[in-house]
Amino acid sequence: MLQKFFVNKNVSKKLKLRLRSTIIDKTLTYASETWTLTKRDRKQLNIFERKVYRRILGPVYDSEK
Prior knowledge:
- Helices cover 62% and strands 0% of the residues.
- It has 65 residues and is mainly alpha-helical.
- The chain is globular, with a radius of gyration of 14 Å.
- The N and C termini lie far apart (37 Å).
């Protein structure tokens, strides 16, 4: 649902990051106090978070070589 929004060039990165922290974090952590997180679960959550950041920030080119 939010894929097109995060890729949209007309929306600022600042707004995308703010929405990520409010919408996605609250959705992912809903009732999380009842979860038992394993190492695999933490790894999967980190992978998902990095994927969202990549969508928001787009390609990053390293200027130092």
